[in-house]
Amino acid sequence: MPSQFTRLAERDRRPVSLTIDGTPAAALEGDTLLTAILTNRRRVRANEFDQGPRAGFCLMGACQDCWVLMTGGERVRACTTFVAEGMAVMTGIKP
Amino acid sequence: MSDTAPDNAIVVIGAGPAGTRAAETLVKAGVKPVVIDEAPKSGGQIYRRQPDGFRRPIEDLYGYEAPKARAVHAAFDGLSDRIDYRPNTLVWEVREGLVHTIDNATDKRGSLPYAALVLATGAMDRVVPMPGWTLPGVYTLGGAQIALKFQGCAIGSRVVFAGSSPLLYLVAYQYAKAGAKVEAVIDTAPFAAKVKALPDLVLGGSTFAKGLYYVGWLRAHGVRCVSGATLLRAEGKDGIEALVWRDSGGGEQRTACDALGYGFGLKSESQVADLCGVPFRFDQGQRQFVPEVDAAGRTPVKGVYACGDGATVRGADAAELAGERAALALLEDRGQAFDRARAQALDAALAKLNRFRRGMDAAFPFPVEMAKAIADDTIVCRCEAITAGEARKWMRDLGAMEMNRVKAFSRVGMGRCQGRVCGTGAAEVVAAECGLPIEEVGRLRGQAPVKPVPLDPAEGE
Cβ A59–B239 below 8 Å, yes or no? Predict the structure, then answer.
């Protein structure tokens, strides 16, 4: 699966494991959840109204276009939430 | 609920360059302010610090601005226990003398009585909708910069930067220097606009020279830079695959890419000022509504001050000065000793930067024609995927001629972002449809909560 973000620096951080739509994925400590998802694929969510693919926009907590659902039912804003070991996120997109 | 805070707190909202200097000035006068900031670390967006465990030197992050970033960070860190610092905290409501907050990490709520407020809430990118702008891979220029500065990432592997903004060449340069593949820099402003603005731009000191340097550097490194372009659409299916644009000669061009950073200057984050009841005025140069603030940072609401890009978009250097100046005004109004000579010097420096601000408006003009021409099938409201055509239909059917009426009918601006992103484009659509000047269609009012907060089952306890 192609990724959206490309890592250019700070690549020697501790690895963190998460799952995205049930598929194991790797990220790095200090990644936001948005970075963790977008270094693994191109989108983070589907818009609730037209189901269009979205992948965040402002990265500063203003546009609210990167809210994702965790498997526990909690919703988090991916650009202001740091990834943590074992996080399980659902992008709401059918594979 | 108010923990350890005093009943009559002086509260600074925001810990970027303006909030930092405001807090520092208050501390010097013997005041212990509460400083509330949404971010986990101080610095604001421009001097945003990277997370713990990242090791790039400060010069890599901020380039020529590294000494300023270092100074602002050091000033804030030096305040330590002389301020009541509340990072990771969102102010979601201000009402009847109380600032209502929520802790971003724990969802813990608080309410804090205040005697005075210094609003240093910053700005975000101003964008204009175009077909395909909701596709994965399309980001604001500021967002593209944050990806690199805060996460060590590029927004894609083949990136185009476009729009009209002082950030445009800076971000492109930072990306190319960090090893990203920059396909093109597409400036929607004609080069002549910058030349014409030169006399005012030079007042910003080296800012303009740095801009020229970035363009030269990019060209020398083989990056295509064009000006006077018109952005037409982002194309792609699962994500952006190309930016289509019209060159200054009228020819259609297609630049393949997998990411786009674009924007048209900055827009004040002024929702908290709105909650405080601060009146707004339309600023023709900035082509946006801004809170009414005098030269010293006083708003017409007693005890409420505003400074930095959240009050007037003048950039980080002006924000530092304005933050200090607003704190001096606050001290003066409270009858405390303050440095009058310093206040006068700041007034003079800020007046000069107002001319620089006008130069920026001229050099990086807002693309009025692009905004007016937003096609019916283009999404205007990202939150609820509402098109320009839907908004126009509601206006025609119900005769809505004002932004908040259009919002009530069409829901444009009613989504999670509260119109932060769509407000600019929606206002242009409404004005063009009604045949009214932009300042006459009003603005989307800020409402609590200014950003989404989780439902609290214990609300009202």
Answer: no
With a CB-CB cutoff of 8 Å, which residues 53-82 of chain A face chain B?
53-65, 67, 77, 80, 82
For residue A66, is it within any domain? yes
| pLDDT tens by residue, B28-41 | 999 999 999 999 99
pLDDT average per 10 residues of sequence, chain A (95 residues): 96 97 97 98 94 96 95 93 97 71
CATH number assigned to the domain comprising residue A83 = 3.10.20.440
| Residue B332 burial class via C-beta count within 10 angstroms: exposed 0-12, middle 13-18, buried 19 and up | middle
What ipTM is given for this predicted complex? Answer: 0.97
Number of domains in chain A: 1
Distance from CA of A53 to the nearest CA of B (A): 6
Range of the domain at A58: 15-90
Average pLDDT (B418-442) is 90
Instruction: Tell me, yes or no, whether A3 lies in a domain.
Output: no
**Cβ count within 10 A of residue B277:** 12
Alpha helix ranges (H) inside B399-440: 403-410, 423-434
Distance CA B386, CA B408 (A): 13
In a domain, A57, yes or no: yes
A38 lies in a domain? yes
The string of pLDDT tens digits covering residues B346-356 is: 999 999 988 88
Give A70 to chain B, closest Cα distance, Å.
14
Task: Provide, as residue numbers in chain A, all residues whose Cβ is less than 8 Å from the Cβ of B147.
Answer: 5, 35, 59
